[in-house]
Design goal:
The protein is built from five helices and ten strands; from the N terminus they run H-E-E-E-E-H-E-H-E-H-E-E-E-E-H. With about 200 residues, the protein is of the alpha+beta class. An eight-stranded mixed β-sheet has the order 1-10-9-4-5-6-2-3. The protein has a two-stranded antiparallel sheet with strand order 7-8. Helix 2 (about 80-95) crosses helix 5 (about 185-195). The chain starts with a helix and ends with a helix.
């Protein structure tokens, strides 16, 4: 090849090479729409009792995507909204819903008896589980998940509870993966769960 042809080849190739390098540096689209918390260590001490009276840990649900929401049955709006949203998610998932476990952890163990949880939680979806424990155990688990909760009002019995309103999502391998903000569009949650089920 002549020197002139070599020079022309280099002139043509240089911009293409630069474009290739730029394409390699362009960040790819994030896999999830919810907040990715992969690598955190939430949930290591989750050991509570479900509304059937069976002790549960995250290991019981290995192979499933697990969502965990902290709330209480007398919550006026946030908790019903969260559970209704997850009910819609389960419907939209279709057959994939069998590979998902929705968990509701009470932050009001004094009032949320197993009987009350058994009535309240499955009313949104029969597959949902309500978990409870002693006030000390609930405090321990809430601390593990960095969940805030505090009684407000008449502490003699007619009180509400201020609490963290997001949902934690664990992958089929039992590791924490996502944090879903309150009142998120169910379609966003469906897409994220499908991605986790696909091994993302």
């Amino acid at each position: 090849m002549s020197s002139r042809r070599k020079a022309i080849s280099l002139i043509v190739a240089a911009p293409l090479l630069a474009l290739g390098l730029l394409a390699g540096c362009t960040p790819s689209e994030p896999v999830f729409k919810s907040t990715d918390i992969s690598g955190t260590s939430y949930g290591k001490t989750l050991r509570l009792t479900d509304h059937h009276g069976q002790e549960r840990t995250l290991a019981d649900f290995k192979g499933k995507v697990v969502t965990i929401f902290f709330g209480y049955t007398q919550c006026p709006d946030v908790c019903p909204t969260a559970l209704s949203g997850m009910s819609t998610v389960m419907q939209e998932l279709g057959p994939d819903a069998e590979r998902v476990q929705v968990i509701f952890v009470t932050v009001d163990p004094e009032r949320d008896t197993p009987e009350l949880l058994a009535q309240y939680v499955p009313a949104f979806d029969a597959r949902f589980l309500g978990l409870y424990g002693t006030p000390e155990k609930i405090a321990e688990v809430a601390k593990e998940f960095r969940v805030f909760y505090r009684k407000s009002g008449d502490l003699a019995g007619h009180y509400t509870i201020d609490h963290t309103a997001g949902t934690y999502v664990f992958g089929p391998d039992g590791r924490p993966r996502l944090y879903v903000k309150h009142a998120e569009d169910p379609q966003v949650v469906v897409a994220d769960i499908k991605a986790l089920l696909a091994g993302k």
